[in-house]
């Protein structure tokens, strides 16, 4: 054989011995694997047994591998081992079913009350491996469901809409369950208007989220009482009631006076206030000055005597916070005509603009355009 032929064969052998991946580039990112089901430290109830007729406690275990660079992962092999807490030996679980970067081990037998799971995966091509351990407890407690969110006593305001881009006010209920995965349930709410009944399916892993869209807005604070019911065969598993306050609409403030320049350094400020309880305190403030206070009555708040030192432009802010804690700020400017001349406002005053333009009328009938910064 020619020398060149031998060199080619030797080169192929060297690549094979070195573990050539046939064109797969070297990988510098990190491969990790975690359990998707059960989660670390989870307590499983007897109702979570995937096959009550079989001996021992059966549970479907799911693990997911990811790459730190964000690229897709394809697994070649995966192995799950189970160990009783405190024992030195590991027991290999059932065969793995791989789907890309996810692997499922069906009907894994958990032999004791406290078990340690260890999953080991190998990526196709790169042959990188990753291992992860976690514990899971098999308890003897009965099935349960509880509402963990909204929290007891929490106030949901206009700013707490979980999805402002979606029409209507969105509330996301969070349920904590045990032994009820895959079961159907219903969320009920009373006392507060606008929270509809919502059906849901209990998710695996112990946490279920139930999104709800209010059917009507809540202008005034209302205390809602909600509870969840999950159907388990011919039984109903119910949560305790969870109370929270709903005030989904902040006050609406529209200035009614003054709406044009005023001729006196003492003037009245008045505003129409909607979606706000009577008796709510409103404040009127100007930088460097003591704020004025007034109460909302009949949907109106009034400050009858506001005093400034003379003519000019004066920035004010009207603030109203309803009983639910929704804050609203309404900035506006007041133009006071400098005496002894009267001023006609020629265009709207804009805070942050170039200035205010006016026509000053002199006693002899002459006019002078004047623009003041």
Question: Can you describe this structure?
Answer:
The protein has one helix at residues 3-17, and strands spanning 31-37, 43-44, 57-67, 75-84, 91-92, 97-99, 102-110, 114-123, 129-138, 144-149, 155-156, 170-178, 184-190, 198-201, 207-213, 222-232, 235-238, 242-246, 252-257, 266-274, 281-285, 292-295, 300-307, 312-321, 327-336, 343-345, 356-361, 367-372. With 373 residues, the chain is mostly beta strands. The protein has three domains: 29-138, Immunoglobulin-like (Sandwich); 144-246, Immunoglobulins (Immunoglobulin-like, Sandwich), CATH 2.60.40.10; 252-372, Immunoglobulin-like (Sandwich). Strands 11, 13, 14, 16, 17 and 18 form a six-stranded mixed beta sheet that branches. Strands 2-9-8-4-5 form a five-stranded mixed beta sheet, with no helix packed on it. β16 and β17 (235-238) form a beta hairpin. The chain is elongated. It starts with a helix and ends with a strand.
